[in-house]
């Protein structure tokens, strides 16, 4: 059961959700919710690294992630993440 179903069924009283995902819901589902607050726009995915990593390793990691969509192995990983095909 998803958190959306939990709210609709009364299993939980509230949840959080990204605006992009909310806008993808059918209008009739959206109307079942009351939006009680919104945050400013923030990136959906963030990369957090240890402060002990060298700048060189951080740069390499960032480049690898940003270029994942250009290699078949990276594309394969994205296929397992529904709706995603690239890190921006």
Describe the 3D structure.
By secondary structure, the protein is an all-alpha fold. The chain contains 5 helices and no strands. It is elongated, with a radius of gyration of 18 Å. It starts with a helix and ends in a 9-residue tail after the last helix.
Q: Quick gist of this model?
A:
This protein is 42% helix and 0% strand. The protein has 5 helices and no strands.
Could you list the spans in which at least 5 consecutive residues all have pLDDT below 50? none
Distance, first to last CA? 30 Å
Name the average pLDDT.
83
**Roughly what fraction of the amino acids lie in strands?**
under 5%
The beta-strand count equals 0
Primary descriptors:
88 residues, mainly alpha, 5 helices, 42% helix
């Amino acid at each position: 059961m998803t958190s959306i179903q939990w709210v609709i069924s009364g299993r939980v009283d509230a949840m959080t959700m990204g605006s992009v995902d909310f806008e993808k819901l059918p209008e009739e589902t959206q109307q079942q919710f009351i939006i009680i607050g919104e945050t400013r726009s923030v990136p959906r995915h963030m990369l957090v690294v240890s402060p002990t990593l060298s700048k060189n390793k951080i740069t390499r990691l960032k480049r690898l992630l940003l270029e994942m969509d250009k290699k078949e192995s990276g594309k394969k990983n994205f296929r397992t993440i529904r709706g995603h095909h690239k890190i921006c």
